[in-house]
Amino acid sequence: MTTKPAAAAARATVYGYPRQGQDRELKKAIERYWKGRVDADALRATAADLRRTNWHQLAEAGIDEVPTGDFSYYDHVLDTTVMVGAIPERHREAVAADPLAGYFAMARGTQEVAPLEMTKWFDTNYHYLVPELGPETEFVADSAKQVAELREARALGLTARPVLVGPVTYLLLAKPAPGVAADFEPLTLLDRLLPVYAQVLADLRAAGAEWVQVDEPALVQDRTPAELNAAGRAYRDLGGLTDRPKLLVASYFDRLGDALPVLAKAPVEGLALDFTEAAAGNLDALAAVGGLPGKRLVAGVVSGRNIWVNDLGASLATLGTLLGLADRVDVAASCSLLHVPLDASVERDIEPQILRWLAFARQKTAEVVTLAKGLRHGTDAVSAELAANRADLASRATSPITRDPAVRARAAAVTDADARRSQTYPERTAAQRAHLGLPLLPTTTIGSFPQTGELRTARAALRAGRIDTAGYEERVKAEIQEVVSFQEKTGIDVLVHGEPERNDMVQYFAEQLTGYLATRHGWVQSYGTRYVRPPVLAGDISRPEPMTVRWTTYAQSLTDRPVKGMLTGPVTMLAWSFVRDDQPLGETARQVALALRDEVNDLEAAGTSVIQVDEPALRETLPLRAADRPGYLAWATEAFRLTTAGVRPDTQIHTHMCYAEFGDIVQAIDDLDADVISLEAARSHMQVARELAAHGYPREAGPGVYDIHSPRVPSTEEAAQLLRTGLAAIPAERLWVNPDCGLKTRGWPETRSSLENLVTAARRVRAELPA
Ligand code: GLN
Ligand code: ZN
């Protein structure tokens, strides 16, 4: 490789690192602080230790420029709210009295004040706290956290680059504050916000920052011309400042599209772009705008979101192409490494051969360093790394784990007919009615019942070997007995077994499917101190034996009423796992669907007449760009139908989703061809029922009448009133009565009262129906 000036300058960097520490020390320290067991100074000391450890880890691995300001006690968007002084009115007093306690009050609420709302960070499983803004919002710069963390890193002798959430993204992620008109657009506050960013930039420069990274991931979504204009204005203004560090505007998760020419033209010194598969199109688009002459390009070629080893040869080829397109090319992970676990090398239960296919944050950091070295000194300088990488990729590509001929042959043989039920809904519904003999407005629940402390203790005892499998299963059966007898006594029409054997549903199924791996330490922040350990969908998927049949049939043996079988759907199984990146998602979904189809068919064969396949993740997996959505929805709905279409016409298929706004996927929901869908609706006063009706949804639906997110017990009349509202949109023959979602996070006392009221409400409204 000839060493061009851009190559000679190549540096390795990342935008952020897992915050929690090797043993989730941060989580533990924060929770101890909340319980009053350690004071704020002790928590701050733990946090500073973790930051230092991370920076050392990065520097020792060979990262040339470390990020600062990416650390957070809870969430980086909340940190930005503090940085710009947009503290909601109701939290100001608490924040003024004690900034740290006030910060956590904004995140979690207190007895007196509600927290900020939480929602997903783009299409990741990380949740941020939504800024609340209004026409009265006044911003005030508070650069203390950013400046302090920059100083810490510099004191260690490191070259550090502060990372900020950009002003355009911050405003686009915000919502109107309580009491502000719903059509208020936070982006109208841009001119008021930019001076605050100017102040923060000046403070960071004074503290020694040569570069500051400003993240604008919102620009990878479809944006209106007005929004693109605002972005152009923001970076013209910030770029025009004299007292500022060099600016690196970063984007990730998808292609920049129309925002690319806007940023390329802006008077900033650098752009960071995602060049992974997820953002396909950036490379061509960059060439089309003539590259970034005179600018620094940071190339995110190592995925910051999946956990697979990078194809270093392919990345070096991409980097080689980029050399001609910018003044200087640096190498990075595509986004903050916050979204992957810390270190794969500590996993003891994964076979060494397979472990070599995995790259968590530490391994990704090493990949970035290798790539930068390869770019600077040519491929010969990294020939050993490249050879080892080629061997790992080859072992993955040819392994029987990723290539199971039986699974592949079966998936290849799928026909349209396999994904279509043998009768239309009107024909099926008659058969189901005759078979099930349910009343009008039938009552049911979404699946889980309260997960008692006893159950969790039993699971822990099983893991620790204090009880054996038989002892654990006795415990689970006792729970099923209780749940079934409660539902019978209360008069619920379609029963469930209560899912006591599952702690996390995706994990429960992943553990039983061949092709999935579990990690021991693969924690990823979901929100605040909540970390999840997503299973790794590594290979071809098959189901060696039935997964749920014995629990459902046990429950059915206890009652004459129908017991609903309960499964997690293929899209959700993918969405809440780390998914393989070596084949299209649709192919992986099809394999999972076929495995679940066997379970559905076995449930039916064992006498189950009602089977629910949950797809709570169908909507959140929707691609960021509208143009990519039809392709996704096509494979997603096919996977659901493939899972469910193998049953007899008189077997009733249910599905469940829990979000109130689903306007943009209502056609896809129709395309699932489920006989019954239950949806979250209580808080939005049955809005979902009206939307379904407006769409002409032809099948049965159960908009939730009990908000399970709150311990509050809805009164009979309140539930009845919601049902009457539902009846205005959906006829009685097609309306079901159920809660919004599963009950596993609720306690027994409120669950009991709420479900009793729900059944009484159904009876009351049934009695009002015209004869
Ligand atoms: N059947 C699951 C339950 O009741 C559904 C969970 C979900 O929708 N997230 O817990
Ligand atoms: Zn739900």
From TrEMBL:
Annotated ranges, domain Cobalamin-independent methionine synthase MetE N-terminal: 13-323
Cofactor binding summary note: Binds 1 zinc ion per subunit.
Amino acids binding 5-methyltetrahydropteroyltri-L-glutamate: 24-27, 120, 576, 620
Cofactor(s) the protein needs: Zn(2+)
Binding site for L-homocysteine: 446-448, 499, 614
Keywords (A to Z) from UniProt: Amino-acid biosynthesis, Metal-binding, Methionine biosynthesis, Methyltransferase, Repeat, Transferase, Zinc
EC id: 2.1.1.14
Binding annotation for Zn(2+): 656, 658, 680, 741
Domain Cobalamin-independent methionine synthase MetE C-terminal/archaeal: 441-763
Signal peptide residues on this chain, from the entry's feature table: none
Active site: 709
Binding site for L-methionine: 446-448, 499, 614
GO biological process: methylation
Pathway linked to the protein: Amino-acid biosynthesis; L-methionine biosynthesis via de novo pathway; L-methionine from L-homocysteine (MetE route): step 1/1
Source superkingdom: Bacteria
Protein name: 5-methyltetrahydropteroyltriglutamate--homocysteine methyltransferase
Organism: Streptomyces hintoniae
